[in-house]
Structures are given as structure tokens and as C-alpha cells.
Fold this sequence. Notes:
The protein is α/β, with parallel strands linked by helices.
Amino acid sequence: MREGWRWFGPDAGVGLDDVRQAGATDIVSALHHVPIGDVWTEAEVAKRKNLIEDMPAGRTPLRWSVVESIPIPDRVKREGKAAKDDIDAWIASMEAVARCDISTICYNFMPVVDWTRTQIDYETATGSTAMRFDHRAFAAFELFVLQREGIENDYSDKDKREAAAKREELGDDGLAEVARIVTSALPGSTSDALSLPAFRERLKAYAGIDAARLRQHLIEFLEAVTPAAESLGVKLTLHPDDPPRPLLGLPRVASTEADYAALFDAVPSMANGMCFCTGSLGVRADNNLMAILKRFGPRIHFAHLRATKREEDGRSFHEAAHLDGDVDMIEVIRALVAEDRMRAPANSIVFRPDHGQRMLTDLTRTSAPGYPAVGRLRGLAELRGVIRTIERLT
């Protein structure tokens, strides 16, 4: 398995020497400065690749091996194959990536919002801080700030009482901060940062789109792009929904084993693969990660190894230390190592320590929320130790 690290570019606060010192060898990055829907040019991809790989004399080499992500425009999610121009533009971006010898592309199909949290600096018992999704805070945002149509039917009376109590606890400033975090797009997001009115309008655009229709639009997208991926030697990896359940009255279609099975049955090409994200999938207690891994192992072209901890209400969670959440990380890694051993070196699974708690010098250093230097270094070191032990003993 190859050790990856998500890098947001030269202005992200975590540099390439930080990555080298953490011990990673493979960079996971994207052209975050290119607007969603615009075509990535070969020149722009090559510029980023050269920045990563043209190392100073004497430095450890790095390789840009995974693109995360080429955003899928919102219109594709709403219209499927009818959004042909947007799909063609996405294929053109994939072609530019392939011409620069990058063969793995991660993407997601979450409508309106990408990965969602309500708190970016939840203080843990150690004094480190973590990302958190508080269901009560999210309900308070929906009920008292967003006030979207039909929301009354989505929350029970108990939920509404708890949301009202949370609103009082947060106060106006705290609730405004939750709204900012939800609507402004978190790091690496493939959805637009929106004002509150624009957010409401984007939600309305999904009226009448249920899970079956959204899934069909994803299948139509895959039917269009997968033949091109096959011809280019590109592996597509669909990231799970985060959190893996309907949100904001919107359906989500990459949350469970059954969701992925439906997509692989519809588009059986091995270029149609998954990003095995233990944190996202692990938020659902009914997701059996080992069963998913065993069933779809050959389709796992990329892995996010992180741990989430479900809280008492079963719907809230926070980012735990990489070996300390609800995920049985040891068994997951054991299975991934076994899968990886069956592959040629060129097809070895790239994994990265996804997210991380802010700790030590992270607490006074600028970095993208969820992507601190020291917290991820700790996570990668723990994961590396497990991997090397399993490799030695099996």
C-alpha cells in the first residue's frame, strides 16, 4: 500500500516538506482554483504536477497519484445525461489528467452540499480539537435559520424540542457559525459556497428528485464517462456520502453496501470503483465495513483511513483518533493489505490518513479545517505501524 497525503496547494499552510517529513510518498490533490464545471487544461494539470514532483536537490521525491476531486457540476446531479455539455467537460478534464500520467480520480455525487459538519473545533478530552457533526445543531440550523419547505415533516416533536434547546445554548452567534460552516463549503468540497438565499434556491431545484432518480442520474453519468476512463486507463473512485444518510431533505445514493452494489451492477466496468472511506461509512452502525471490503475489494482503488465516533444519540459523531473510533481499523487494514498483495505494484492501493485532530503546534498554525499537519502525521504514523506489523506477521 502506498502512503498518500491530501495537499491543497502552496497556500494551504501545510507544505510539501511537511508531507516528506510525515513520511508520505503520494500526493492527493486537485485544481481547487478552477471553478466547478470549467475544463481542466493539460497545462494547468502539468503545472501542479511539476510543482509537486520537481523536487529541490536532495529532497525525497513525491508523486501526484490521485486526483481528489474533479467536481461534478450540480446540473449533472439534477439532470443526468441531459447535462451532456457538463459531462463532456468533465471527460475533457479527465483526459487532461490522464495525459499527465495520473490514473486515479476520486469524486462524489452528494447534492448541494459536500461533506458536512456543524463544528470545526470541538474540544476533546485531551485538549486537541476535532471536526464534529451535532445532529441537534444541524436541526436548529434547518428549523430556525434555513426554514426550508417541508421541514416540519422531517423532524419529530422530540427533535424539535432538542433543536430549540440547542438554539438557546448556541445563541445567535453560535447558530450563525453553524450556518456559515454548513453553507460555505469545507476544504476540498466539490460543491459551491452559497449565501443563505442561494442555498435555499439550490435546494428548491431538487424538488421531485428522489433517491431513485438521483441514482439514475449517477448511473447515466457513469455510463457516459466510464468508457472514456477505460480507454485512458483511469480508475474512478466514488467517495461515500458524508454523513451517509439523507440530509436537508435531499436523497443520497452512496451510503451503503446496497448503494454501491446497484451502481456496480448497472456499470460493471472495473474502471467504476470506490473510495473506501472508513470514516464516512463508519458513521452508520448498520454498515458492515468488513463485508463491504470483502465484496468490493477489487474495486477499491483508493482508501481514506480515518475513525469517527458515534455519539449517544446515534446521529451525532466526531472525528476520533485514527485507531480509537467505531471502526475496527486493525481488521480493515489487515483486509486491505491482503487485497493489495494480490495486485501488481503499479496498482497498489493508495491510502491517506483522512482528517486529523488539531494538536500541539496545529493549534497555533493555519491549516484547512480537518487537515492539520501534526494530527495527520500522528494518524499516518499509527496506520503505518499497523500496516508494517501486519505485513511482517502475515
